[in-house]
Amino acid sequence: MKKINFLLILLLSFTFLSACSSENEDSNNGTDQENTDEVWTEIKDSGKITVGTSGTLFPASYYEGSEGNEDNLTGYDVEVVREIAKRLGVDVEFEIMGIDSMLSAIKSGRIDIAINDIEPTASRKEAFNFSEPYKYSYTTMVVRKEDNSGIDSLEDLNGKKAGGGATTVYSQIAEHFGAEVVTYGNAPNEAYLRDVHNGRTDVVINDYYLQKFGIAEFPDFDIHQHPELKFNPTEQAIAILKGADQLTEEINHALDQMRDDGTLAELGEQFYEEDASQKPGDEVEEIDGLEL
Questions:
Q1: What is the strand order of the sheet 91-96 is part of?
Q2: How would you classify the pairing of strands 203-207 and 135-144?
Q3: What whole-number distance in Å separates Cα of residue 267 and Cα of residue 217?
Q4: How far apart are CA 41 and CA 245, in angstroms?
Q5: Could you tell me which residues come within 8 angstroms of residue 279 by beta carbon, excluding any fewer than 6 positions away?
Q6: How far apart are CA 50 and CA 211, in angstroms?
Q7: pLDDT of 38-90, one tens digit each?
Q8: CB within 8 A of 138, min separation 6: which ones?
Q9: In this structure, are residues 187 and 58 in contact, taking their beta carbons and an 8 Å threshold?
Q10: Domains in the chain, ordered, with CATH?
Q11: Contact present, 179 and 110 (Cβ < 8 Å)
Q12: Which of 22, 126, 259, 263 lies 20 to 30 Å (CA to CA) from residue 180?
């Protein structure tokens, strides 16, 4: 009789422990889900999404008029994210900062997302969520007109001075081929392009669209896009806190709508005179051995 009671107690204990274990697992799953949705919940509750951008990257993010006035901030990236916020039913507030500060500002909670022609590289994807691409492009060079700054191939970057941000993909490409990177803070296009013109640097490696329109703004500079070199096909996406999956899903849903109804194409035509939301048809060279 005692033996039966003892076995019964063991069976009940095992059932109780199993139930506790199941409840803990369910509780952990619930906590994970809350953590995943926390950023989106805060954005919905506050009615505002805070966005990091530079305000110096023409024509993606720039001021049309006096700087510091958010009403004057515009550009392809700026208007894309304004439209996303509208479709999410929230206001948008911009924080102006250099590209090197944006990703750390997401981690610290200073901003919710960053949009500034950011490429979701493999290493960045390990540390952040990214939206679906809202822009497709490739990489080109700004060089001096008279001699293409002595650059006829990517290998000719060896020993050249390349203007760029410290943590950008474009600076990594320059370093990969042996160039010395001359870094800038949150400087406008003019500073980068003038330095190529006056010989302080030899080249600026950057996005095709950005360079095309940046050069057009300064016709007196002795610079142009390299006539032959097109390389490193790219995608640009919105950077989001790692694990903020609900926010990522909501942004992607808005982008899907904008792609389907033609809004992305219209914004591309407005700022780039081309539909930047589609992959370019040009033949673009892949770079072997480049780990970004």
A1: 91-96, 48-53, 113-114, 239-241, 128-130
A2: antiparallel
A3: 19
A4: 11
A5: 136, 233
A6: 27
A7: 999 999 999 999 999 999 999 999 999 878 788 899 999 999 999 999 999 99
A8: 207, 208, 230, 231, 232, 233, 234, 280, 282, 284
A9: no
A10: 44-134+238-272 (3.40.190.10), 136-233 (3.40.190.10)
A11: no
A12: 126
Residues facing 56 on adjacent strands: 62
Write the pLDDT tens digit of every residue in 162-193: 998 877 889 999 999 999 999 987 788 899 99
Enter the tokens of residue 131. Answer: 């939206």
- SS3 label, residue 207: strand
The identity of residue 160, as a single letter, is: K
For residues 215 and 224, is the Cβ–Cβ distance under 8 A? Answer: yes
Residue 27 CA: distances (Å) to CA of 33, 152, 192, 234: 10, 61, 53, 41
Name the one residue in this structure whose structure tokens are 């994807």. 125
206-215 confidence digits (pLDDT tens) = 999 999 988 9
What would the pLDDT profile of 139-170 be if each residue is shown by its tens digit?
A: 999 999 999 999 999 999 999 999 988 778 89
116-142: burial string, b at 16+ Cβ within 10 Å, e else: bbbbbbeebeeebbbbebbbbbbbbbb
Position 59: which residue type? P
